[in-house]
């Protein structure tokens, strides 16, 4: 009997020791995560120009090539010109072809005029002084030198690229983008990426919600610029409301069946919206989180995605991706976005 009691005490003591060890491990991980976050913030704030020169030089060289050539279809999101009709000989056919030529010329003139107006308004935005890079926690100088409609690699898996969607059967979406004192280049690049890489028949509008920003370039210069873009609306909070209330303010005026929230420093990739709409049509009550690739805060290069896409929350409750072979699993079904 005494031996059994001794064994029981030993087991209890062992369990308590294991519980204490687990607590110490969790505490140590929390401290390491906090220190890593503090070090990252310190480096971004105090060494904003300690950059990889080769990466930035290659980015700027690529941006200088074709800077003026991209403003036709991608920048304006106005679609291709009407094709030239091939008709039989005859007076009626010649008249029809001449009418198409005239429409194409008028369309081209309108596009050229709109491009010039946008360039002028962008120069006004650039002329307004802004805070130094360290106020934004990323390299704004490099971002400002990159085109607003830059090309990025299609990072979808090969299987997803082969999936076709019946766009006419999908609900239409409104994109809500709250911002507060955002850099103009990242904000406008967000808008242009949505316009350039979203099917026109699926996009109702882009709603920019200004959470009472104080920077001058986000006032009238921004309003003049986005006022020239199709499907873009700008609303402003009377006072500072925060991220959640700003999103709700955009929801109140949204006209789309689906509402998509974007950060103001985001670039959507090719084919980003249809897979989400397919899943929402299948499960209307779902809240979806797509794959999120990274953008280097120093060189502003679009990062190569991980082979395994798994998201979670860090110890300070920020959303992040898991790597190094450690995966977190939580409740809910895993959605295969390309399974249309």
Describe the structure.
The chain has helices at 2-46, 53-64, 73-76, 91-127, 140-145, 158-161, 184-197, 220-226, 243-253, 274-282; strands spanning 173-179, 203-210, 232-236, 258-261, 311-313, 319-321. Helices cover 44% and strands 9% of the residues. Helix 4 runs antiparallel to helix 8 (220-226). With 340 residues, it is an alpha/beta fold. It folds into 2 domains: 53-67 and 129-321, Spore Coat Polysaccharide Biosynthesis Protein SpsA, Chain A (Alpha-Beta Complex), CATH 3.90.550; 81-127. Strands 3-2-1-4 form a 4-stranded parallel beta sheet, with helices on both faces. Strands 5-6 form a two-stranded antiparallel ribbon. Residues 84-96 have a biased composition (Low complexity). One of its GO terms (molecular function) is polypeptide N-acetylgalactosaminyltransferase activity.
In short:
By secondary structure, the chain is an alpha/beta fold.
Note the topology.
Elements: H1 2-46, H2 53-64, H3 73-76, H4 91-127, H5 140-145, H6 158-161, E1 173-179, H7 184-197, E2 203-210, H8 220-226, E3 232-236, H9 243-253, E4 258-261, H10 274-282, E5 311-313, E6 319-321
Parallel strand pairs: 1-2, 1-4, 2-3
Antiparallel strand pairs: 5-6
Helix pairs in contact: 4-8
């Amino acid at each position: 009997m005494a031996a059994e009691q001794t064994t029981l005490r030993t087991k209890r003591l062992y369990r308590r020791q294991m519980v204490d060890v687990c607590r110490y491990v969790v505490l140590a991980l929390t401290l390491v995560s906090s220190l890593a976050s503090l070090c990252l913030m310190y480096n971004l704030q105090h060494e904003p120009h300690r950059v990889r020169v080769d990466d930035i030089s290659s980015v700027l060289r690529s941006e200088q090539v074709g800077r003026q050539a991209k403003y036709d279809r991608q920048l304006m999101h106005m679609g291709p010109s009407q094709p030239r009709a091939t008709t039989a000989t005859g007076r009626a056919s010649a008249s029809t072809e001449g009418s198409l030529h005239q429409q194409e010329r008028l369309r081209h003139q309108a596009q050229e005029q709109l491009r010039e107006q946008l360039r002028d308004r962008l120069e006004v935005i650039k002329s307004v002084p802004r805070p130094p890079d360290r106020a934004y926690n990323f390299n704004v100088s490099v971002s400002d030198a990159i085109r607003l409609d830059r090309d990025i690699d299609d990072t979808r898996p090969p299987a997803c690229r082969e999936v076709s969607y019946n766009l006419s059967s999908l609900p239409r979406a409104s994109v809500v983008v709250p911002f507060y004192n955002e850099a103009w280049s990242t904000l406008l690049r967000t808008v242009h990426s949505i316009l350039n890489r979203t099917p026109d028949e699926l996009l109702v509008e882009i709603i920019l919600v200004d959470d009472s920003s104080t920077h001058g370039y986000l006032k009238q210069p921004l309003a003049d610029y986005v006022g020239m873009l199709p499907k873009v609306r700008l609303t402003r909070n009377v006072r500072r409301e925060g991220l959640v209330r700003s999103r709700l303010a955009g929801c109140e005026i949204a006209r789309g069946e689906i509402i998509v929230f974007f950060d103001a420093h985001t670039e959507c990739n090719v084919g980003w919206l249809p897979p989400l709409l397919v899943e929402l049509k299948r499960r209307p009550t779902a809240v979806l989180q797509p794959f999120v690739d990274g953008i280097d805060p120093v060189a502003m290069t679009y990062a190569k995605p991980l082979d395994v896409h798994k998201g979670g929350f860090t110890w300070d409750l920020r959303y992040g991706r898991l790597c190094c072979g450690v995966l977190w699993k939580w409740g809910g079904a895993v959605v295969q976005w390309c399974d249309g």
